[in-house]
Design goal:
By secondary structure, the protein is an alpha/beta fold. The protein has a single domain, classed as 3-Layer(aba) Sandwich (Glycerol-3-phosphate (1)-acyltransferase). It contains 8 helices and 7 strands. The protein has a 7-stranded mixed sheet, with helices on both faces. The chain is globular, with a radius of gyration of 17 Å.
Amino acid sequence: MRLAFRTAYGVWCWAAFVLVGATALLLSLPLADLTRRRRLVRYGARLFFRLAGIGFQVRGLERLPAGPCVVVANHASYLDGVVMHAALPPRFAFVIKQEMVRVPLASLLLRRLGSEFVDRFDHRRGAADARRVLRTASSGQSIAAFPEGTFVERAGVGRFHSGAFVAAARSGLPVVPAVIRGTRAVLHPTAVLPSPGRIEVEILPVVPAPAGSDRDAARYLREAARRAILAASGEPDLEA
């Protein structure tokens, strides 16, 4: 009986996700204003959590600077992108791994949201992608990224890539760490169907861009943000 309930629940979650996602895509197509498209998807993401009966809470939004910044969060589940779209205000452009381009409808919606796709494996294309992200940051847009790049089955915080921190250092933008809790339990990397649960996003204190060379500043921002996320996540250090 319990297995049947969990299966039915998981199928309902995916049905709600497809319905909300397809509706958001269709409604976004005629919208010329980028902020309105992002606001629509933020509402859609929150609606999905309500339809799925997944508790969702965001704490610390008041810590976000009024001006442009770079938000970085831990990565533990396929749900994390949906979670951060639901959590952050619509002024954020998301940095997305290039593999998402191969998911037709999702990639179209992400492009409509002004997302930046980055290649994690081809160094030449990755460098070009990094320059494009830097231009986005330098233009005054806020950026959101998952510096681990991907997630693994084992619980914990992995190695942080430098891209988002280099963009922050070169643009003089503060970095804002954020912790996502609960997505691994709701949709584990090995699971096909979601499970009931609660998800929380906590915005942590700002890490200001330090003085010094861009390389040193990027290293400082990366290490400080990772320490903050590791401490607040309660998960083990996968680099230890």
